[in-house]
Every structure is written in structure tokens, then in C-alpha cells.
Amino acid sequence: MIEPEVGDIIRCESSNGLPPIEIWVGKIESLRDLGVGGVSADSKLVHLQMVAIGDGEFPVVGHSPFALSALSKCNGSKIGTRERPNDNFEDGYNAWLEAFQNGKAGYFTLNPAEAYWGILGVVDENGVGKQ
Fold first, then answer.
1. Residue 64 and residue 6: Cα distance in Å, rounded?
2. Distance between CA atoms of 111 and 114, rounded to whole angstroms?
3. Complete edge-to-edge strand list for the sheet that includes strand 61-67
4. pTM value?
5. Confidence band of 17 (pLDDT split at 50, 70, 90)
6. Which residues of 22-55 are buried (b: 16+ CB within 10 A; e: fewer)?
7. What's the whole-number mean pLDDT along residues 104-119?
8. Higher local confidence (pLDDT), 85 or 63
């Protein structure tokens, strides 16, 4: 499994035949630090910014929270580092954090590439391409 650090750029492969994505790691934090009970001390979230890799222009998903274990599902590799996000990552993180603390938001546990294409509406919740 990839052990990411803040600033890492990781290529994440899609399992549904769609282009891979590039994820930028903006923040890593413990679920315990967020007040989640009943989790191990090493249960962590990674906060990612995502964009597809390929020909053409693809939208950037500014902030998405994932269980650290989700990175193992993307058969990824570290391809570089960057200090800052491409888009407004912090506003997305802050909005998510407020909603999470109020029980109105969660985090992804699936492959980040599948989540990216699902957010864009290209695949359904099962990773199947929409017509």
C-alpha cells in the first residue's frame, strides 16, 4: 500500500476502463482526532484533490475525503510532489469538516478513480458506465 505524505501526487488507475486520475494529497488526519470513537489509533483519512489524466480538459474535484485504505484499491504509484493544490482545496475541506462534525458528511472507502468518475456522473455507484 502507498504510504502517502502531504503534497504527494499519485497516479490512480481506474478499474472500469476510464482514464486514470491524478490525486494530490492535501491533508492526512486521524479519525480519532476528528472525534470518531471505536476506531484504531492508526485509522486515518486522506483529503485529496483529483483530476483525470489524458487528452482533453477534465474537471478538478477540489476536495474529497477518503479512508487511507482506499488508496490501496487504486493500484497507484507516486509520480511527484506539489506544495499547493491547483484549486481551492481549503474551502472544500472546511465545508466538509463542518458537515462531518454535524453528522451530515462522511468519507469514501472505494477506489479514488471510481469516486472521481462517479462524482462527475460518468459511472454509477457500482462503477458501471452510464449511457
1. 14
2. 5
3. 61-67, 44-52, 21-30, 8-12, 77-81
4. 0.88
5. confident
6. bbbbbeeeebeebeeeeeeeeebbbbbbbbbeee
7. 93
8. 63
